[in-house]
């Protein structure tokens, strides 16, 4: 794999960007050789700075739902760009977007737009507190809801007071939720839930029906708001809120990532009973009203409603999962593929230091497939039969390479990851 340009960019970045890169798109915690910089994206593929092409099972960590450069979305954005984007006031497209979105999502009666998922979850948190003037926010231990002081997993620069009114409980465990609430019954503002348990470094788990319904019941009893954080899972499992599949309606839902198919826009949706609270909070941003991402979102939502994108990406995801399962069995590896296939997490059994996983994804990368060794992956509806074939050929090659080295896998360059696992385990405790 060519990496001449990559090396040069990494070297230049090191001098002018702290650590050379930051956040979830830093490759510091990926196997050596994973490209940091990219030059192009189209359909289900990405090209790195040296022009190496990969079928991309990360989809930009979610946003790519309909394919990079989706013609309809690009056309809608282009048309709006010719008219204007960031201006002194919002475009009329904002009203259309709110109408369309609210009409699609069963629990929603109103919408507010922002940029990142963290904006949406933070607005949900503040709205929940404003609703009855209470303080306590309940979060499932280990769940990711963003990079703000009240929820970031990284604790540098965060003080205890930032979390003074955040209480943690265990996902899928109503007893743990009851314990967390005990003694604070009159002060519970809201309970956050991700649609399923999709944490990094761990197998994913689905919520039980009893749990999802139980959280709803507890919120009703306490007159607290149930917030479902759809930022990661939104529209990959359902055309409505994911918990609509379980018959549970949240009071607030947070959306981001896929909403503009890659254009920067996120949203907080809410039920009637939370409207006054949402209208009372101070929430704004210089770019929150930009019209181009809203035009992209209107078209993304149209395709969600009117095309078979969901069935197509689900079909590809299930076939990929089945193919990997057969290969793993053939080569004799214990592989855990957990969570919904559309957002699969793949971990090796007996691989606490991710040695096998690192080797496997590194080999797959050489074969033209971009996988992740410890974060859930994402499918988009632009994946073609040829992309699927490239993907399964790459995973087969990777299993063969893993088999060839047998038990003699060297300790990898994953010290940074292991430190991070330890840090995250501590911060979640
Ligand atoms: N909530 C969930 C469930 C997420 O997965 C993420 C991002 N991975 C966020 C919130 C934060 O979104 P953003 O990175 O756009 O701020």
Automatic annotation (TrEMBL):
One Pfam assignment: Aminotran_3
SUPFAM superfamilies with a match to the protein in the record: PLP-dependent transferases
Protein name from the UniProt record: Aminotransferase class III-fold pyridoxal phosphate-dependent enzyme
Molecular function in Gene Ontology: pyridoxal phosphate binding; transaminase activity
The entry's keywords: Aminotransferase, Pyridoxal phosphate, Transferase
Signal sequence bounds: none
Cofactors: pyridoxal 5'-phosphate
Gene3D superfamilies: Aspartate Aminotransferase, domain 1, Type I PLP-dependent aspartate aminotransferase-like (Major domain)
Similarity comment: family membership: Belongs to the class-III pyridoxal-phosphate-dependent aminotransferase family.
Keyword RNA-binding among UniProt keywords: no
């Amino acid at each position: 794999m060519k990496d001449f340009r990559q090396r040069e960019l990494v070297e230049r970045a090191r001098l002018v960007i702290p650590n050379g890169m930051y956040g979830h798109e830093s490759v510091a915690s990926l196997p050596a050789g994973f490209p940091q910089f990219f030059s192009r994206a189209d359909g289900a593929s990405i090209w790195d700075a040296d022009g190496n092409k990969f079928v991309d099972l990360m989809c930009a960590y979610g946003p790519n739902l309909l394919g990079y450069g989706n013609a309809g979305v690009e056309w809608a954005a282009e048309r709006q760009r010719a008219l204007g984007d960031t201006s002194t006031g919002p475009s009329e497209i904002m009203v259309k977007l709110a109408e369309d979105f609210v009409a699609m999502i069963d629990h929603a009666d109103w919408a507010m737009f922002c940029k990142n998922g963290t904006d949406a979850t933070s607005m949900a948190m503040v709205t929940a507190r404003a609703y009855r003037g209470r303080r306590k926010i309940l979060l499932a231990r280990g769940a990711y809801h963003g990079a703000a002081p009240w929820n970031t997993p990284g604790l540098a620069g965060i003080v205890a007071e930032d979390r003074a009114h955040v209480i943690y409980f265990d996902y899928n465990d109503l007893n743990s939720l009851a314990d967390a609430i005990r003694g604070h019954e009159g002060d519970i503002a809201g309970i956050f839930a991700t649609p399923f348990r999709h944490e990094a470094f761990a197998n994913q788990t689905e919520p039980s029906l009893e749990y999802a319904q139980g959280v709803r019941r507890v919120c009703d009893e306490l007159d607290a708001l149930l917030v479902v954080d759809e930022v990661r899972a939104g529209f990959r499992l359902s055309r409505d809120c994911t918990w609509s599949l379980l018959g549970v309606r949240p009071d607030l839902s947070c959306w981001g990532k896929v909403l503009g198919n890659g254009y920067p826009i996120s949203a907080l949706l809410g039920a009637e009973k939370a409207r006054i609270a949402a209208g009372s909070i101070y929430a704004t941003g210089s770019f929150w009203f930009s019209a181009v991402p809203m035009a992209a979102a209107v078209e993304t939502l149209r395709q969600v409603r009117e095309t078979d994108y969901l069935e197509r990406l689900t079909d590809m995801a299930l076939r990929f999962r089945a193919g990997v399962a057969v290969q793993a069995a053939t080569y004799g590896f214990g592989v855990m593929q957990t969570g919904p296939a559309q957002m699969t997490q793949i971990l090796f059994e007996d691989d606490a230091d991710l040695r096998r996983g690192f080797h496997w994804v590194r080999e797959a990368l050489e074969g033209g497939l971009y996988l992740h060794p410890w974060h859930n992956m994402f499918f988009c509806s632009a994946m073609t039969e040829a992309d699927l074939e490239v993907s399964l050929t790459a995973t087969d090659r990777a299993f063969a390479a893993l088999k060839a080295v047998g038990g003699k896998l060297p300790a990898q360059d994953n010290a940074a990851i292991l430190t991070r696992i330890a840090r995250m385990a501590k911060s979640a405790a």
